[in-house]
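Problem 12. The chain below contains 380 residues. Write out its predicted structure in token notation.
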Amino acid sequence: MTMLVACREAHSQSAPSVDAAGDEREILKQKRETFAKWEKTEEGRAYSVSTNKKSDTAGKKQYMDKLSPGGKIYFLTCRKDYGEALKLLDAFSKRDTGSGLYVKAKCLDGMHRRLEAITFYTKARAKIGKDFNPGPRFYLHFSAAQAAAGQDVEALKNLKIAIQKSPSAEEYSSTRSAVVTSALKRLYYLEEKKGKFPLAFEHYLSLAGTDKSQYTLNEPITADGATKARAEKWLKEHSVPPKATDPLARCKYFTTAAKAYLASGNIVKAKECLASAIELREPAVGNFPAELTDDPTTGFRQAKETAANLLITLDLKDKDLKSACKHIRATFVTDPAREDQKMLTSLSMKDVSEIATAQDRALHSTVAEERLDFGSPDWK
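Solution.
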């Protein structure tokens, strides 16, 4: 069995069963409520970064004062205060443990010092054993640094290990489905980066649970005189899109304008309008990232998918698989091109047990890891 077949089978086995659109909305609602409660805790407030710098500093210090040296390093790393974390780590007695080396790698990676990060990820991997036995996040982080440095072959190997480790994801405050889906998106983006556009496009389709048959051009490229006249009249009367505060209205406008341009024979302008439509995002709710607010059952998501499908259809008609890959990525809530920056980014405290103490664990909530997987609140 090839790595890709094994990955795809793991994805199909781990995909959650959602019986109705209401179930998805309920899952998003519950997750937002859980995270909102955590953000009001002492730990949540310590992670927060707002316009009130004095308050932020006080909350951060108050929480850090209760942590061990290793707990402080873990907290600062997760908070993305990488320079501060490295300063404490360099003076820490357990800096050469697998946990310490992993944290250093993560900090260097966060500072975009990829090659140095890879060196320390490699050193940490050499320490894997009884005391340091990391879960799937370690391999996702390692592969991300390698991919950023152009080491695609090695990155693929670590993605495979992450998927192999996915059954243990819940022990590390994640889920098998999240790990496998994230790894596959990164894997398929590597294919796209290498110029394997037909293969990457087929794999993106499989991840979305669809196939090429849906991309049929319902709207004709050319139109009769009367239809063309009506299209040109509409374009003259609707030269300005709705305000930016209404993404649904803007999405529908750009899609309608694109169809009008198609009817009038202006393919270039039609594609420009559709590209504008699929770049739109719904406003975030409070401090929550788009991944938790971009409900796939809303009218906006459906309108955006309509625009994306039409644009991809035009790409396929032109046999432009490079553009088709770019545009199908826009249909995912998290673009595979930014998956390593947006999903499963946090450190699990279980992965750094050599530097964290019982007191650190008592002050820590695994909800923090789930929330931080989407980025720091408000945050950074």
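Discussion. The CA atoms of residues 19 and 25 lie 12 Å apart. Students who got a different answer should revisit the alignment rule from Section 12.3.
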